[in-house]
Please model this.
Amino acid sequence: MGEKEEIVMTAMKKNGRAMMRLERKKKEDINFNNIHHIAGGPYKGILVSKTADELESVQPSEGRVEFMAYLFVKNEGHREPVQDLWTLQFWFRGSADGVQKKKLFTDYFQELVAPGSLSKNYIGFVKRALVLLKNYRLIKRVELEVKQNEETEPDEDIPPVQSFTSVFTPSTYAYQFVPEVQVNNKHFLTFKIKAAGDAYLALSAVYGDVDRKTHEIVLGAEDNTKSFIRDGSMGAIRAQATTINLLSEDDFRFFWVSWKNHVIEVGRGAYYGKNTFLKYKLPQTKQFNINCMALSTGRASKGQWEFAEILDELPVWRTYTGNYDKERADKRAKIRMCLLWLAKKQRMLSCLEDAYPNPVPVAELLQKCKIKSTDCIAAVVMLNEMQRKGLIQEVEKDIWMRVQSGEQNAKHEIKLVKEMPTLTGKEQPTIGVITGLFCEKLAVDAMMEEKTTYVKFKTEGRHHLPTGESQVYTCGRIGKNTVVSTKLSRLQGGQGAMIAAENTVTRLLGTFSRIDHVFIVGCGGAVPHYTDYTKHVRLGDVVVSMPVDSSGAMYVYCQKVERLQGSRGYSYMTRAWDARDQTLQTAVKDLRRTSEIRSHEPKPWELYVEEGKDKLKGEESKFHRPNITTDKLYATNRDGTVLRYDHPRPRSMYGSGYREGQMNVRYGVIGSGRIVARAEDLRQDFSQMNNVKAFDAEYDSVLESLEGNRCDSFLIIRGMCDYVDGQKKEWQPYASLTAAAYMKAVIMNL
Model:
């Protein structure tokens, strides 16, 4: 313990309760007029205050332990049992996480009551607690409370020692995982909570992920009137109940939740199995092991949660000493090495996804991923492991290709061919879909039925990365329409990428001569509005290319920017495209009109998103919506300072059907051009001037090829994954899925 710090003990007795507070304090914060005794010898650094009438108010404790003590008191020659409830509460300092805090107070308690050193009287117990606290430097404060139990006869079966974990959640929808409360070895939890409403509990299979393989339980939603069970964070509602005034911001309320036998149940009270008010029997596609738990509260309230566990069931950990632990250091080093190789594996997989449908020689793959020659053997082992999982394939010696695996519960045949087979009659597609990212292709294909994927590839005599020789076509059905999807290879940049994109479009329209309509579907960057919800585009939304003025422009590409002399304005040299055939635009207008009339009904694209999630569960990419807290809105002032803004919310007249995290569809121009998309001042100015709602990664070469091949009917649909041009990866799979789902809704409306 530092020289400027002491441990101060303060006692209080009131209403049959004896309380003792042991607290670390800086010397300058101690009122020595209240100090009764300064200890020496083995107790040096410990001060004893005068008995207090009241203890100063402090924040709620972060953990506690409760146990029963049985004492025998001599009374007229015989011994009478006395039963006391003892409670130890703990506060911490520093940045220790929940697991470390729980380990600390558990270690402290186990050392305090160890059989060889357990005191037989109250004073000795307190002295032992003081001495131990000197060694546990991260514990800021300990309170001991003793309260006599009204029961006069002790139970034959002594109650176990219970450990309580407290969790505090702020008034913002931001999940925090609680690893100190183990759930992987249980099938139910009991807990209590104090909150005004909007309390969220997520049961998840994957630590850190509350979207994929997660059941979300919402207590006291919609002004403390309803409760839900949902598929993941802000997911589809699977069970709901009217629960008026379920929660209280002044008092703790007890609840329990169970996931036994693949049935989610939620009830009131501390007794598991009673007063059930929510129940959801999980279908086979939603069944998984519960491995972790996360908590949150919404904007309506902050929350205080408390969970209890029987301490006897916990492992006996080594006493905390702060000494170097070689075994732990070795374990951390091993984990770090595993994480590094997982990152390298992901880079190789991403590289193959960008190149798809073109295969990549292993030497070029390792060079592109910056893997050292000394790590070549380990890299090849990793490639073979990914091949065993069905993610990639060695199409020829030392030449690898990403492959589309079959979706869950869907018939999807994948064929590697040297030449495309001839399709006749109804097999010939009338709608083509162009994608650029691998996850975009997967999302589009998940919208089809009765599909077959043909991968035509070429590797002979290749010494450099491919320039578009290979093609991939997935032919299937959406409603009554036959559809084919393809993917652009993205491994190159500059002029080579433009040529490859133009070649891909030309081959698509040449191979399938009956295509009448083309969709360009995938990710984009949102153009936000900082004050008006009706104009605001945020992550997870969809932007559909629709003209907003008499020019008819749907897509505007910025070729050059010049600053206007004598002003802060800019001049833009642009190229714009519109569709001469308005068939797809008319279908969008009809779909928009119908959805607005039926505003209280689920939108068809929302249903298609849920169906797509179920089909794509087996894929490496995560197609569930990322946590809403990752959707942060920033703006840069002219002086260079960066400010964070809250997302605008709808006014009351627009907000009746609003819920945080919902997917909105916006209609307007889509812009492109790296020079404007990635400079914030240019981006905002260009957007306002051209009514741009979203940006993408320069698909002007695709549109030029469509125009050159006389394709007059096209539509661009972008799901928002960032606030630039759609290149950030975290939201890409979900954004791809939302765009594909809206594409399906348009096709079904043709």
